[in-house]
Amino acid sequence: MQYHEFIGKVQNRARLGTTGEAVRATRATLEVLGQRLHQGESEHLASQLPAEVAVFLENDHPDEAFGVEEFFERVGTTENVNLPEAVHHARAVISVVKEAVSKGQFNDVRAQLPEDYDPLFESGSEGEMK
Asked: Structural domain of residue 45, as residue ranges?
């Protein structure tokens, strides 16, 4: 998947008005994901994403242990949006990541995250936590 296609899909799924907003949502989500994953896993994931998106996974402090609620809070802080928007945007970004990488790579990412991260992989709901 090419960069413009990736960002366009994020913009569409997250219902964002501009490409810039889609880039901010993508950056926030992938930066926080990069903080949570083991460094090797971040690098593997990045290798299958467009280079302009992959750079968002680079992190000096990978493999931090934090739950999904803190994940969404960090996305919201980084993106400067409220929590329901952060949840919705992060889910949109992750759904595009899932399409952009191999099934095996995506499964490796999921395997590194505990079950409490299941809400990150839900689609369709508007940022509501169950």
From this structure: 3-121
